[in-house]
Amino acid sequence: MKKVRYYWVARVLRSFLLLGFVLLVITLLVNISASLFKMKTYATYGDFTFGSTQKGYKLKTKLRLSIPDTVISYEDGQRRIHNEFEDLSFSNKRREESKNRTITAVTASSISSFENEEVTVFNSFTISEPVEAYVSSTNKKYSFFFGLSEQLDLLFTILFFWLLIKLLNRYMVDKIFEQSTFKLIAGFGWLMICKEIIAFIFGYISSKIMGVRFLETTDVLNDKRYNFIDLSLDFYNVFSFSKVGIGMLIILIAYVIKEAIIAKKENELTI
Q: Looking at the DSSP assignment, which residues form a beta bridge with residue 125?
């Protein structure tokens, strides 16, 4: 059989994918065993550690971050000012003191540069993609749910690797333009859609369990709380409509190409 073009490149790539697939499957089995039998999720051999030593379950969350432009500290609390810098003139200070609140400190935060001061970067940041946070619970039902969410996310990654390996196998035997191949390509689209649907369902349940979490900084010695950074974790909005759209587009492209190849073969038989 004549080898396809870039055969050896595909073979090397498939080897790496197979290695990743095996490691992911082992990780999944280790995580499930650790949850069922209270085992460690990692193994050590000398200085080498395989697996995760991080405690808790990995959960997707949206990170919202905003740095106040000005933080006014009083003896009995704080006031945070966003989207503007408040210059504490003498009259402003007198107005605050007239409320029997003595100002102890004023902290101003800004994104500065020594190169181009004509451009302003504001203190509010948007992170569009979900980040990973580790959580734990003394409630067994919550722990089971967190573990299930983490393993399902890993399972989708394993399925993605499996589809890539199957697709490379078909390319290496020169069967990339057969109808069954386009079912594999459409499988990537369905996988993306299913993953986002699961993310929506699990995100809704997580939000009911977790609520919205905020960052609090505490001076333990003086029993005071400081909030120089407004940071919150949103466990609900972890799904992506754009990924659902991309999944639908992949399915549509796979279907259109499949129909085009069928039509081409029918024309060749007619001629």
A: 65
> 64 pairs with which residues across the strands?
126, 232
How far apart CA 48 and CA 44 sit, in angstroms, is 6
Query: Contact at 8 Å (CB) between 191 and 208?
Result: no
What's the rounded Cα separation, in Å, for the pair 50 and 108? 45
CB atoms within 10 A of CB 181: 19
pLDDT in tens, 87-122: 444 445 545 554 566 777 777 777 776 776 677 777
Listed by start position, the domains of the chain span 7-44+54-62+135-216+240-270
Q: In a 10 Å sphere around its CB, with 0-12 CB exposed, 13-18 middle and 19+ buried, how is residue 88 labelled? A: middle
Question: What's the rounded Cα separation, in Å, for the pair 239 and 208?
Answer: 16
pLDDT in tens, 169-193: 988 888 877 777 888 899 999 999 9
| Cα–Cα dist 94/76, whole Å | 17
pLDDT, tens digit, 9 for 90 and up, residues 191-221: 999 999 999 999 889 888 887 777 776 666 6
* Element (DSSP H or E) covering residue 103: strand 103-108
Length of the chain in terms of residues written:
271
